[in-house]
Design a protein that fits this description.
This protein has about 280 residues and is an alpha+beta fold. The protein is built from nine helices and 14 strands. A hairpin with a 3-residue loop joins strand 7 and strand 8. Helix 7 runs parallel beside helix 8.
């Protein structure tokens, strides 16, 4: 499969829904989910549109964060060797508050590994014209400049080597973070912030070299779902970064909830805050 052509199709898909995304981000309904968190009209609109697009384009099932009325969640990990993981809209709560860091993202998984992923930040696209990011396994991570993928900027993580001067984004259910000793150690040593969305944080990490000396040098995911993490896993790795669990082990479909994504140079310093083996 030509993944660069897939990136072009995906960008065109998202750009074609830009007006609806911006409109629903401000006027769409929003409600609490029974299991916690929020779902909005924008989430469900992008769920229906993106699920249909990627199912037809790739010919495989789509595992989405959202489930339509009467639908049943897909068993994780799916039994199929090839499937799409989709977060139709990441950052529902913050978007409603007017924080413009939300986005939509997906990852294509083949035989247990992510081979393609993309993240679309519509507010970045509206303001700067470069809100589409994607990664291809073994080929790199890129940001599209403009409204097509004919102009691509290769992405690379930051070169920050000192955790005391680094910035780390903490992602996950905000009410759980204060109870994490690992998170408290990060907050004491590094500059840190709760990101507006995983989508936004991962693009900042992957493009870190462009934002130095104020770059995002790591993203720590606490209890996130597969659709939150897998698109960023490939983007980070293809931009020159490193991804492991909290103990330095390789991630897997069965173990992709608690992850450390970093510029690579800082990885062992971050691991040492949680795992004695790295101290």
């Amino acid at each position: 499969m030509d993944f660069f052509r897939l990136a072009s199709y995906a960008q065109a898909f998202y750009l074609g829904r830009q007006h609806d995304i911006l409109r629903l981000s401000r006027t769409g309904w929003i409600k609490k989910k029974p299991e916690g968190g929020y779902v909005g009209e924008l989430d469900m609109f992008m769920h229906k549109e993106a699920s249909k697009f990627f199912e037809e384009r790739l010919g495989c099932i789509v595992v989405s964060e959202e489930v339509e009325d009467g639908g049943a969640p897909v068993f994780w990990p799916p039994r199929q060797d090839r499937f799409v993981v989709l977060d139709p809209w990441d950052g529902t709560h913050n978007t409603r508050l007017g924080l413009l860091g939300g986005g939509s993202m997906m990852a294509l998984v083949e035989r247990g590994d992510v081979v393609f992923s993309c993240i679309y930040l519509p507010f970045t696209q509206q303001a700067l014209g470069d809100g589409f990011f994607f990664a291809v396994k073994g080929k790199g991570a890129f940001q599209a400049l403009g409204t097509s993928t004919t102009q691509l900027k290769p992405l690379h993580v930051s070169s920050q080597v000192n955790l005391l001067e680094a910035y780390v984004s903490l992602e996950g259910p905000c009410r759980r973070l204060p109870g994490s000793e690992f998170a408290r150690r990060i907050q004491k040593l590094a500059g840190w912030r709760n990101g507006p969305s995983c989508a936004y944080s991962f693009t900042c990490l992957a493009s870190g070299i462009d934002h130095e000396p104020i770059s995002i040098d790591g993203v720590i995911s606490f209890g996130c779902e597969s659709w939150d993490n897998l698109p960023g896993v490939l983007l980070t790795k293809e931009a020159g970064g490193k991804v492991t669990d909290f103990y330095g082990r390789s991630w897997s479909l069965e173990d992709c909830s608690n992850l450390i994504c970093s510029n690579g140079v800082l990885h062992d310093q971050i691991l040492a805050l949680n795992s004695p083996a790295f101290r």
